[in-house]
Amino acid sequence: MTPTPRFEQGGERLLAGLQLRFNAQTRTQIPQLWQRLGRDHLGRIPGQVAGATYGVCHNFSPDVEFDYLAGVEVTGASGLPPALATLRLAPRRYAVFAHADHVSKIGDLWMAIFQTWLPQSAQTFAGDPCFERY
User: Fold this and answer.
1) pTM for the model
2) CB contact at 8 A, 129 and 58
3) Distance of CA 43 to the CA centre of its chain
4) CB-count exposure of residue 23 (10 Å: 0-12, 13-18, 19+)
5) pLDDT tens digits, residue range 17-56?
6) How many CB atoms lie within 10 A of CB 64?
7) Which residues contact 76 (CB under 8 A, 6 or more apart)?
8) Number of neighbouring beta carbons within 10 Å of residue 1
């Protein structure tokens, strides 16, 4: 089934979290990054903004490699542990897709967005960070 988005204007956000590089074969290891974040950092990140966590794909390469940051919004980068990377999301218009299935099925939604919805839509992918908001 082709997903249907709503469109929203998103504000600037500064995120901090654990980040690794993945590809189509290694993306199955992303849940382990989340486990490390929860075990070692969640609730103890300086300047952490209460509320959502974010999974962000960015720094895409033509051979389908990308950086993935599992993290939270923070008020600033001061005092962050060295293990945490930061990423600033610029204000922009986003296509927002709801995901009602188990989180283990999130990859199926990503594939539907990029393989079905995007080619059939009048939209183009800018190459900017894409994120999951939990």
Assistant:
1) 0.91
2) yes
3) 19
4) exposed
5) 999 999 989 999 999 999 999 999 999 999 999 889 999 9
6) 11
7) 14, 47
8) 5
